[in-house]
Amino acid sequence: MAGRSWSESRAKKRIETRLKEVPFNDLEIRDYVRDTNLADIPRTVAYRVDGVHLYADILNLRDMLEVTNVEGETCHRRTLRFLNLHYRAVHRILQRVDALFVDFHNQRLHTVVTKPYDSATNRTHRAVAIAQLIIDVLAETGEDADHPAAKVRVGIDSGEALAVSNGRRGHREPLFLGEPANHAAKRAAGGKAAGIYLTNGARLEIGLTEAANPDTTPLTTSEIQTSQEKAKLGVSADDIVKEWKDDLDKNPIGSFDFSGHTPPFSTLDIETLSVKNSRRQDAATVYADIDGFTSYVGANIQSDDGAKHVLRALHVLRSELDAVLNIDFAGRKVRFIGDCIHGLLVEGTAQTTDAQETISNMVLCAGGMRSSFKLAKNMLNEDGTDADELGVAIGFDYGPMTVTRLGIRGQLVRCSVSRGVLAAEGEQHRCKGNESAIGAKAYGEASEAVQTVFGSTRKRADLDYQTALDELTAKNDRAAKVSKALATAGALKPVTAAAAAPTFPARPVAPTRLDGFS
Which site in 214, 302, 419, 448 is 20 to 30 Å from 144, CA atoms measured? Predict the structure, then answer.
């Protein structure tokens, strides 16, 4: 049995290192100007960007995952192909309309419109026209009953946000922090009806009246047509669909080939994954979101000093959440999504997951995240950056998980999608900044000790590492007893596989395509 543990002294050393990477006096806040390259922003730099944020949610993703009663390879293959078809179409749209690609996270696209630079009104009209183009194209990019057209809901807001670097080591993309990104995302996630939904601020930008409830007030056909006429995108849905079909003929996606990864996930190199080299196995997945961060950005973005504190807080807090997952508990970050981290954790073998050990270690990991988050806030405060108002909301679940990369070669995006992934995100959303929640599937598979910790509500406030460790150990949880024994013996470093032992990261798979699309 693997031993995973959290140590305050180890966490403190990491946080001290992160603080040294972003000394306040070395940070720089710049204004975004014409054609600024946001592809590789230095860690110590943030840009103020006045733009229009567009989030597009694919509403029928869950339908794809639930096409079969059992969550087996069939529904995962169909879902990943479904996403890949639409990712490739949307990439083509964004290239043609000169919009900034920010992120694809499973069913959710985030893009930013910064042109024309001198008119927020015209930018908003352009964003509406782009949104309708996405809707029209994805209505035509289904293949068959197994891979239908996507049903899309778009949220849009306009305003100033901070652009910073997201990720590291070959997986870097711009991240936008602030109210317009957050509000656009909320409008996209605000209901099950398709259409284009603007915040009242964005509605006023293009001369529309405020809506009593923006989440139930989609733009009308005539309002969309007005924006299309003003934007003059110069490309039609027919153009995009034809190019998309031509590319599929020349560079077919192929069949998804799955293998299991030999635990732990910390040894998985996601940047080597592709359609022909994907992973699938029972595992735990977690979402840990910095609660209150949008308000924190809004309160600090207008001054350079305030924006510098935002940059420091984000870097230190997110990095430490990642370190707890990856270093202390041998899990793997899939990606940062704004101020949230999405990750995976597994114990057992490539063929057989130890469900109870995986879930118990996930509980301890969530406790370690909360303990590290509190420690990092205190150390930020001591170093001059007030982060007292921030919290962390943690949700996780268990079940068959996938991890791969989709899209266009050279611009592949990480993807881990399953019923459990959607459930974990839902668990995170029902938490406040001091709460952790376990999904129904994980709760049912967990040890009696884990079930006792979370109770019938499957949610627990202030569950830090020591509390989780003590309560699980008191109920004779196997994984917790191993972790406690490590601490008692003074072995504070996480146990890893012996260096001399052979490792088998995956069962045999077909070779990866080296040309064209993945």
Answer: 419
